[in-house]
Write a structure and sequence with these properties.
Elements lengths: L2 E12 L2 E12 L3 E5 L6 H8 L7 E6 L3 E4 L11 H11 L5 H10 L13 H14 L4 E5 L7 H18 L2 E6 L2 H4 L5 E6 L2 E7 H7 E7 L9 E8 L2 E7 L9 E4 L2 H10 L15
Parallel strand pairs: 3-7, 3-8, 5-6, 6-7
Antiparallel strand pairs: 1-2, 1-4, 8-9, 10-12, 10-13, 11-12
Helix pairs in contact: 3-4, 4-5
The chain binds adenosine-5'-triphosphate (ATP).
Adenosine-5'-triphosphate (ATP) binds next to helix 1.
């Protein structure tokens, strides 16, 4: 596996303190990686460092190929028309696929003479995404592209993104608060919590490696299991465990879903699931 993005020992400090501390992660080429974490976890700081907008105080970022960035606030000029926006994109970017951009917007029914401010939030997100894709990047970085969009528009944007990725093999790193939006489209997960990388890995492998156990509260965690989260209600105990072989038939065993897995890690900031960087070709 070749890594499209490798971050090693990254630390970034803002005025008030450290936003990222010793973060290491890797995203293999051609993957769609979800970056999730609570408010203030450091997601935007990480994305800004990956795209070169911020200089780290320690550590390194290595990207294979060009990076295109779609920022949280969709930096489009309100008074520009679509045609002017595309001309602007062409002038700013030496590698610019104008035919693709015009074609994609025509397919979406967004006419060239319309002004950005006349478009809906979903349409503006589609324009911003088109501009990012027309740069033909190796790595596409999206900071909360779905914020403020209704569920239908979120679905449309994600589907559009997936189509492009499938066709061109672009690697994507996308931050979001809403894990449910990422479930069907992402195949790599990075969980950031309190400025540290808590989880980084292939989503299917992570799900296969974790189990949700429930049973009477006298049961002890299976030998060798890493307990990520434990909760007790009445006489029942519920565990999310990693790397467990469950032999005791009194446990009710099922696979955790992505939401449960992410929430369990976020509620247990000391737990982590990190591969060695060599496993992802870094
Ligand atoms: N320009 C800045 N100056 C000072 N502190 C900052 C700056 N930008 C971010 N921070 C701080 O760094 C930390 C990480 O912020 P960041 O915006 O990266 O988190 P985030 O995970 O993107 O949050 P959110 O989900 O709320 O967008 C926070 O404590 C934040 O207050």
């Amino acid at each position: 596996m070749t890594a499209a993005l490798t971050v090693t020992g990254l630390s970034v400090r803002h005025r008030r303190g450290w936003a990222l501390r010793d973060c290491s992660l890797s995203v293999p080429a051609g993957r769609v990686a979800a970056l999730v974490g609570p408010n203030g976890a450091g997601k935007t700081t990480l994305l800004h460092t990956v795209t070169g907008l911020l200089t780290p105080h320690g550590g390194t970022v290595t990207v294979a190929g060009d990076v295109a960035f779609m920022a949280q606030d969709k930096p489009l000029y309100d008074t520009f028309t679509i045609a002017e926006t595309l001309t602007f994109g062409r002038r700013l970017n030496p590698r610019w696929d104008g035919a693709y951009a015009a074609g994609r917007l025509a397919e979406l029914g967004i006419e060239p003479e319309r002004k950005i401010k006349e478009l809906s939030g979903g349409q503006q997100a589609q324009v911003a995404l088109t501009l990012a894709l027309a740069r033909r990047p190796g790595l596409l970085v999206l900071d909360e592209p779905l914020a403020n969009l209704d569920p239908l528009a979120r679905h449309d944007v994600m589907r559009a993104l997936m189509g492009e990725v499938a066709e061109r093999g672009t690697t994507v790193l996308i931050s979001s608060h809403v894990v449910a939006d990422l479930h069907d489209t992402c195949d790599w997960l990075v969980v950031l919590n309190g400025g540290r990388v808590q989880v980084s890995g292939d989503i299917d492998d992570l799900l296969a490696g974790h189990l949700m156990l429930s049973g009477p509260d006298e049961l002890r965690p299976p030998a060798g299991a890493q307990v990520i989260e434990e909760s007790r209600t009445g006489r029942q105990v519920r565990l999310l465990v990693r790397g467990a072989q469950v032999l005791d038939p009194r446990w009710n065993v099922r696979q955790a879903d992505l939401d449960e897995l992410v929430l369990a890690y976020l509620r247990s900031p000391e737990a982590s699931a990190l591969p060695r960087l060599s496993e992802v070709g870094a």
